[in-house]
Task: inverse folding
């Protein structure tokens, strides 16, 4: 089902978000993930351990999504000295609601060579600009495993405001890190950090300029 909001390629001078194509991007995604499986340490789905599993995850999560609430982009670094864009990760939207004019940035995967660079800032910044600026949504949410400090800090650097901890929000697959409930040792649970940027944050004087300054920073 098409996403509830229009989905298109987005770009800055140093990064491009390309609407995800199953046949083109899954092999790139698996090739990168297979050498750095720890990148998906806190993802709330079964570990992806083969190309076939990567295709199955994509189909389960996106192809067969009947809600239209999820979308995915491939992230390409454009800053390399080579002429060709370099695949750097993926980023997406989930829990999107046209009725409530909200969405959530998720599926954020930036592979090791591109961590602590401009990639995550530009990818998230592009989605914030598109969702709050172009689409005029009221709320863009960010949720993360409560133990995933880097994810929370990344969101706060971009201007997301901490709203609280949703305790025992998710039941995780058995192979994922989480908290255990006595008698249910095979199904760990997740406490989730909830942050958001809302329309009034976006329109607050200086917010957009601060975000753009972070995207413009070269070091």
Result:
């Amino acid at each position: 089902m098409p996403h509830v909001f229009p989905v298109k390629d987005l770009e800055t001078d140093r990064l491009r978000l390309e609407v995800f194509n199953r046949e083109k991007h899954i092999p790139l995604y698996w090739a990168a993930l297979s050498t750095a499986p720890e990148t998906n340490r806190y993802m709330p789905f079964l570990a992806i351990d083969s190309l076939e599993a990567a295709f199955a995850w994509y189909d389960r999560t996106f192809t067969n999504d009947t809600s239209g609430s999820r979308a995915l982009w491939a992230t390409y670094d454009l800053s390399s000295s080579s002429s060709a864009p370099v695949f750097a990760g993926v980023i997406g939207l989930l829990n999107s609601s046209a009725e409530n004019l909200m969405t959530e940035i998720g599926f954020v995967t930036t592979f090791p060579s591109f961590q602590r660079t401009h990639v995550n800032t530009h990818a998230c910044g592009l989605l914030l600009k598109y969702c709050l600026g172009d689409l005029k949504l009221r709320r863009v949410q960010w949720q993360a495993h409560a133990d995933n400090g880097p994810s929370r800090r990344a969101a706060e650097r971009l201007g997301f405001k901490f709203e609280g901890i949703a305790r025992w929000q998710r039941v995780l697959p058995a192979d994922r890190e989480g908290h255990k409930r006595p008698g249910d040792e095979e199904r760990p649970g997740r406490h989730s950090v909830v942050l958001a940027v809302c329309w009034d944050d976006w329109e607050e004087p200086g917010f957009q300029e601060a975000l753009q300054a972070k995207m413009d920073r070269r070091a």
Notes: The two ends are 40 Å apart (CA to CA). Residues 119-134 form the longest helix (16 residues). The first strand starts at residue 10 and ends at 11.
